[in-house]
Amino acid sequence: MNKELKKKPDLSFWKLWNLSFGFFGVQIAYALQSANISRIFATLGADPHSLSYFWILPPLMGILVQPIVGTLSDKTWTRFGRRIPYLFVGASMAVLVMCLLPNAGSLGMAVSTAMIFGLTALMFLDTSINMAMQPFKMLVGDMVNEKQKALAYSIQSFLCNAGSVVGFVFPFFFTYIGISNIAAAGIVPDSVIWSFYVGAAILILCVVYTSLKVKEWNPAEYARYNSLEKPLDEEKTSVLQLLKKAPRTFWTVGLVQFFCWAAFMYMWTYTTGSVADTCWGVNMQLTTATSTPEYQEAGNWVGILFAVQAIGSVVWAVVLPQIRSRKMAYSLSLLLGAVGFAWVPFVHDPYVMFLPFILIGCAWAAMLAMPFTFVTNALEGKGHMGAYLGLFNGTICVPQIIAAAGGGVVLQLLGSVQSHMMMAAGVLLLVGAVCVLIINEQEK
What we know:
By secondary structure, the chain is mainly alpha-helical. The chain has a single domain (17-214, 240-438), classed as Up-down Bundle (Growth Hormone, Chain: A). It is built from 17 helices and no strands.
């Protein structure tokens, strides 16, 4: 046992803030992707039954990139830190791709070529966002003691939701100030293009701020603070060994994650079509549906709904710590989200649609904070926090891949009505709420 073991120090609020501030910019990029990918590819000409296939790329790149970033950064030390170099490289790549992706239909290419260009850009965007996102979770796991971890993840959740609100409302805002929200068939409107441009600028500024403000421990210091036998850069291990040693909490929380992230994959994929159908009366069965002004209006409104969801998430995140049992808080949040999803197909007023998305925000708040609280507490003192969190990201990515791969089939089974997919999401969250009961949060 390391004889120079030190207790992790308490950090000031602003040091905890600085650890996660760059996440604000990363989340703007992620929000723009979440709210607009279906809209972009539908505008380019994708069939609704194929939309979910485009969503395979984000989690697929996540499951490939995040464990690699976690494992490599565990054993990396440079003058700039262990996690921050990966953060900076990922953010820089994301900025470039964010300027290319929404222009897929504006470069004079044929529809098929524009689709390939868009898919390639999306692949690089997913890779870069995942590379930039994972270090923030690792920084909290590395440098924050158990007493302050809930506060640190709450700050990260607040910044995550604040960034989401900004990214979600950008297309609506730019339309409001006069930037065109209508374009020729197959071309993404300028309101979306400028949203990606401005989001890219904010992303790089936020990441530069975190890079300048945060000073990481070196591997020897990390070992002393985490009761390791020797620094991680000297220790040899494998993914299979890590999984074999993972606590039961890692796997039971992962089961809950499966149903939660499959549900939200369907939300991201089908909300635009659902809202266009139920609130704007667009017949989504028609091939010309996505070229109508009503569809683009619905696309902007989806950003507002996702922003409402994020605001609801911020408010509910304040309530969560007041619930004595973390498992009860987790399960109740998912149950409220399930009700919200099931409600969506029955709402025909755009403003009334705020109510189900507030409930969905309750589930989102729990999904952002609860799993990492359970898992990082269970991993305390085991080392390899980055590698474990990278592997735990598989519980986010795998369900999305499975849901996306089967989305077209499920849509067809549900009558090819996109709003019915929101009810399917509600059923998935309900199952997740029940599975929370098997989590053993005391186990280390």
